[in-house]
Amino acid sequence: MMILLFFSASVSAVAAEPAPGGIGIRLLDIPASTKDDPRARTYIIDRLAPGSEISRRVQVENNTGAAQTIRLYAGAAHIDGGSFIGEDAGAHNDLTTWTVVGRPQIDLPAGGTAEVPLTIKVPSDAPESEQYGAVWAEVRSAADKAGVVQANRVGIRVYLSVGPGNGRPADFSITSLSPSRDQHGNPQLSALVSNTGGRALDITGDLRLTAGPGGLSAGPFGIQNATTIAPGTSRNVIFTLPQELPNGPWTARIALKSGLLEREASASVTFPDAGPGEAVAPAADGAVPWLVPATVVAALLAAALLTSFLLRRRRRRLSGPGMAASAAGKRAPGRRSADVTR
């Protein structure tokens, strides 16, 4: 009986740059329609109609210092807990059955590279959905006395959306900001992100703090690892800040993105001395919370102009001929009118 133990690298950008002493795999083809999307440079991301197909090439590298037999295959994956998780080699889904790797096994000398084609063909009766998977490059050790085989692999994520049209575009909103301190006393700010679109997201971004105690500013602070959020779900994106940071209040401004999609939000936050603080609703798309909305400014300006017009009209009526004659007729005895000269 053989027991297979997997030691997988993260199915992300780490796959594009092989670590010294290991194997690597990277994507060679980027569709012209997504050439400006940074995610498309690392992952296979596409939208296909049933009955259509795409072809890609990957490059496999052997930097182990010895000749290696490398297996190549498509594996199932899923999104859970904000992470893109590649499943074991025996796990399958619809995407793995649609994917054909041109060279399932290659022998590479130390320092050698090879290009491998792959094709994803969606059957004509495929349901509209988003499929997740990975293209893996894997090396295995010989079985030990207990029958244990160790498998080391690196992979490229695959996000495939299936449908007759373009489908719902990617989109997300920042629902709330929650200050807190972790068990070590480090201040943290959690942004609750809701995936309101039809595509999975890989959220990165940064946080800046301004208008702090004594006019202090801090940041930018980045997210250590990208958070993956499936369509229709929400996930907290957490920024961990220096322990010596004062409680506040601060104006927190966060800028999050997934590929070319960007969203900004800001809010006034105060970090607690310990544990969770109070969640606040942010102002979306970079708006500053204390600024008056443009619609309100326009309404106030219109009201001011109308009031000015009515006052000028009233003054003109009061200074007309009829009113002047009436005023002259009511002058008190002994007083001279304004137009009398001495």
Please outline what is shown here:
The protein has 342 residues and is mostly beta strands.
Account of the 3D structure:
The chain contains three helices and 21 strands. The model is unreliable at 12-18, 286-300 and 320-342 (pLDDT under 50). The strands form four sheets. Strands 1, 3, 5, 6, 8, 10 and 11 form a seven-stranded mixed beta sheet that branches. Strands 14, 15, 16, 18, 19 and 21 form a six-stranded antiparallel beta sheet that branches. It starts with a strand and ends in a 13-residue tail after the last helix. With 342 residues, it is mostly beta strands. It has two domains: 3-162, Immunoglobulin-like, CATH 2.60.40.10; 172-284, Immunoglobulin-like. It has helices at 94-98, 294-318, 321-329; strands at residues 3-8, 23-27, 44-48, 53-62, 68-80, 83-86, 99-101, 105-108, 113-121, 129-140, 148-162, 172-181, 187-195, 201-210, 218-222, 227-229, 234-240, 250-258, 261-269, 275-276, 283-284. 11% of the residues lie in helices and 44% in strands. Strand 12 and strand 13 (187-195) form a beta hairpin.
